[in-house]
Each structure stands twice: as structure tokens, then as C-alpha cells.
Amino acid sequence: MSEVILEGRDLRVVYGGETMLEVPGIAVRSGEVLAVIGPNGAGKSTLLRVLGLLESPSRGEVRFHGRPVPSRSQGLLALRRRFACVFQEPLLCDTTVEGNAGLGLRLRGKSAAESRTQVSVWLDRLGIAHLAERRARTLSGGEAQRVSLARAFAIEPDVLLLDEPFAALDPPTRAELLILLQGLLRQAGCTTLFVTHDREEAIQLGDRVAVMIGGRVEQIGRVAEVFGRPVSEEVARFVGVETVLDGAVVGASDGLLRIAADGVQIDALGKHTPGERVLVCLRPEDVILRREGGKAGESTRNHLTGRVIGATRLEAQYRVEVDCGPHVIALVTKQSFEDMALQAGSPVVVSFKASAVHLIRR
Amino acid sequence: MGLIWEGIREAIRLILSGDPGVLQITWLSVKISGTATLLSLLVGIPAGVGLALARFPGRGLLVALVNTGMGLPPVVVGLFVSILLWRSGPLGMLGLLYTPTAIVIAQFVIAAPIVTGLTMAAMQQLNPKLRLQLIALGASRPQVLWLLMRESRLLLLAAVMAGFGGVISEVGASMMVGGNLLGQTRVLTTATVLETGKGNFDVAIALSVILLALVFGVNYVLTWIQQRGRTP
């Protein structure tokens, strides 16, 4: 495991008597992308400002390379100059693209010539070299955000802070920039704190992910772990678990558990003991729908019969709600949805593997 | 109409002939109002930036006072500066009343709130997040202030124009604290008042035309600086 570069200890931020942030400990490791996700108002941006040395916490301390960060002094400015930040709004100055991209360098006392060489490299990598002489206020949203990214990367920061950098962009531009940024981060290998409310972005860019809810970090870990094994119902809901059932363990043998939930029996894997109360979590993409009589996969242990309540068209899929005692949500491709000719009231069988079931102890 | 044409002809004659009296009055107006404007910039820009960016107790009251000050009637300023500088007044020993310095002081009092108020408005119309972005880019405090002022440069120049425009055209305070003494404290506005009173409309119109041309000239230069390099 690589070295911890940036660390918050016992952090607390209070605005007007209201606690916005309460984080006993959080660490960003050298070279990793730590994605911070959570609903609006969860304190993500506050955490970014505190760890990014832009705001001092009401309590607690931030450590950089193991040393506490001074609260106000020349030392703070010197440390801040090893960071760079990209916000949701590009926040460019009224000058040329080149002037904007080189701003961080010139603030650090770099000569115009030195700055120009460095800037041209990054304008090129971000695909905006041809815009170098353009006035910043004539740019489109996507172009402006590329300038903002170039401005941050040109500094070659130790720590890059990204606060919802794609939230204001249209989907194609966003997708394009995400892929570009993924490549740049891998290439630059710079430690990154990436705040977003979009879990797809977190999966795509993050090495680890922290889920914040109500000012607290509820869970932090590898992306697969947090998305697959959320620790609480709130985290589960935020990371995309759509079916959460109340249940109890009624049988256990060799790690195979039987759970009773809302009048049905579900097989799951785990080390829980009979009698224990659990929350049964199912991701919609792990649920398979078929018409009665259709063939089920061999390793699939759970089969529940029920009726379709309703379906919502998504981009390439349908989100189908099925009443099989408990309500279960499934994602079905457009093709199979149409093949099965599903509609409200259609009898269906809902199937999922025991390994797809995640249990949270209550 | 005839009167106006005659006045304009007289003005052109006075300007072209380089009438020493008129030149002296014009030059004195520029010197006094220019000095007062410069002083008001030295005080008003830092004060406006401070009021726009800092948060401290009593700020709201100060902002209200500055905004009130932007509409300060020149005669009221003239009255209080006169009292201050009166021979038996608090600053009477300086012997400044009826000198150009007295007019500079009065005009400074008029222009400073205008420059402060417009500077404050200029800084406040910037995106508040820009400041955080600049800090996050590693700007020191002076660098942040400089960059923010550069961002609002169009409106800051407007503040300069408004300040200069306010004092070069002001008459009440100049009359009261300057006394309209020929060759010493007679400026374009007070001279215009005097000539109109005497019924010398042609000279009064000439002085007015010169005053208008002066205001236009200064604003034209400032506007040129402001709009340079901007495409619509």
C-alpha cells in the first residue's frame, strides 16, 4: 500500500452552529484517485476545501506528507502551491486561453517563456492547442473546462482537486472529457481527490471511493468493495442498490444462508448466524427476469414468481418493478423487454444468484 | 438660437486665439479636479475593494454610508469644508480657505464616495467563486487582489470616469470654498455662473463648450482604454 500524502484527522466544520462535516479520519494515498461521492449537501465540497487547504476546519487538522499544515502563514501558501483545483465552473480570467492556462505558473513566478512551453504541452494534451490565442469568454462550456484542466495540470501539482468538474457539461462532452481525464491522470500519476455526485464518474475515475452522507464518511474502500458490499442502507441506496428488504437468517450451512424476507425465502452467502436480522440488498443489474416456463441459469439459486407492476424506459434498458411478495427491481435490456412483451400484470420469474445478494447486519 | 451660435463662435474664437484668461481657468479646472480625482482613487479603490471582499462588523453601515455619499450634494460638502477651514474653525490655522487646495479637498470629499461605491460594485459583480479559484491556483493575497481588479477593470475605469465627471462639473462647493477669485480659484464652472449672472451669455456659452469638450476628451481617452481589444 502506498504512502499517505494527505490526511485529515478529527475534522469538523461548523457553519452558524450547524455541523457540516464530521470526519474522524481520512487519508489520500500517493498516486491514487480517491472519489468522494454522496448526495447534494453531504459535505463533499466542504471536505475538498478543507483537505485542499482552502478552508481551515473548525476543529481537527490536515496533514500533508505526515506534517500538520500551518493554519495561516507563508508556509500555507507554499503548501497550497503544490495543489491545483478544478471546480464545476471553469472560472477563467478575461484574457486568452494561453494566458489562463499559464496563470498558475506565473503566480509561481515562472517566466513567460518557461510558462509558454509548459502550457503548450498541456493545451495540446487537452486538445485545445488551436484555441491558444482565443479570448476565454468566447469558449464553449466544454472548451472552457478543458482550459481549466490545462491550467491545473500545467502546475504539475502533487495533489489535484476536482470538484464536480463535469456536472455542468452536456453528456457527450462529459463522456469525452472523462475518458481524456482518465488517460491524463494515469499518465501524470498525480494524487487526486475527485468529488462528484455521479457514481458512474466515480467508478470510471476512482481507485477508491468514499461515500459521504450527512457530513460523515459512511464508507471508504476500493470501488468494487463499496459498490458491492455497502455497509448501510443509505450507502446501498446511493451506490445503486435498488432492492433493500428486511429479513432474518433462518438457516445456515457451509456459508450458504437461508433468509426469510417479506414472506419469501432467499439464499445468500455469508457468515451470519440463524436468528440474526439483516437487510437484503440486490443490485438491479444482478436480477434476471423471464417469463414463466423460460429456462433459468444453472448456478442461479433464487427464483421468485411475481407480477410486473410497472416499467420505466431508461437509455438502453427498462427498469422493471416486480411484486413477488417483496418488490424487486430489475434492469432488463430493451431487446428482452420487447421479446417478453412485458406489461403491467405480466406473470414473471425473478432470478438471482446467492452471491449477488449482499447482507447488512442490523 | 442666435445666442447659442454666437456663443459657440465666441468659444471657438477664445480657444483659437488662446485667450490667456480662459486658458488659465481651464488649466486650473483640470489641475484641481484631476488632483481631487487622483486622491479619491488612492483612497476609494482600496476602500471599495476592502468593503467588497472583507466581512467585518459594521460593514453594512459603512456600505450604506458610502452609497449615501455617492449622492452627496456639493453645497453640503462646501458648507462643511468651509466651516472646517474657516479662520476660526478647527483647521483655520492652515489658512486654506479660498485657495485651490480648499477646492481639491471639497472635490475629494465628493469624488471619494463615488469611486468607493463604484469600485465596491465592480468587485461584487465578479463571480465570488473566482476568488476561491485564484487562491486554489496558489495566488498570494496581493496576487488575488491584483487579479480581481484586473478582472473588473472595465467597471473600475467607469468609476474613474464617474469620479472625474462628478467633480469637474460641480459648482456649489468650488464656489463656497474657493470664492471664485480671478486668477486664483476661478474654475470653468464658477466662471460660467459668474458670466451668466453678468449677462455675458456668449462668454458663458464659450466656457460651457470648453467644459463639455474637456469632459468628453477625458472620457473618450478612458473609454478607448476600456474598450481596447474588445470585440462586441
Write a concise keyword list for the protein shown above.
A: about 350 residues; alpha+beta; six-stranded mixed sheet; five-stranded antiparallel sheet; 11 helices; B: about 230 residues; mainly alpha; about 75% helix
Structure description:
The complex is a heterodimer of chains A (about 350) and B (about 230). With about 350 residues, chain A is of the alpha+beta class. Chain A is about 25% helix and about 35% strand. Chain A has helices at about 45-50, 75-80, 95-100, 105, 110-125, 140-155, 170-190, 200-205, 225-230, 235-240, 335-340, and strands at about 5-15, 20-30, 35, 60-65, 65-70, 85, 160-165, 190-195, 210-215, 215-220, 245-255, 255-260, 265-270, 275-280, 290, 300-315, 315-325, 325-335, 345-350, 360. Chain A has a 6-stranded mixed β-sheet, sandwiched between helices. A 5-stranded antiparallel β-sheet of chain A has the order 13-12-11-14-20. In chain A, strand 11 and strand 12 (about 255-260) form a beta hairpin. In chain A, helix 5 (about 110-125) packs across helix 6 (about 140-155). The longest helix of chain A is centred in the middle third of the chain and has 18 residues, at about 170-190. The radius of gyration of chain A is 24 Å and the shape is globular. Chain B is mainly α and about 230 residues long. Helix content of chain B is about 75%, strand content about 0%. Chain B is built from 11 helices and no strands. Chain B has helices spanning about 1-15, 20-55, 60-70, 75-85, 100-125, 130-135, 140-150, 155-170, 170-180, 190-195, 200-225. In chain B, helix 2 packs across helix 8, helix 8 (about 155-170) runs antiparallel to helix 11 (about 200-225) and helix 10 (about 190-195) runs antiparallel to helix 11 (about 200-225). Chain B starts with a helix and ends in a 5-residue tail after the last helix. Chains A and B meet through strand 6 and helix 4 of A and helix 6 and helix 7 of B.
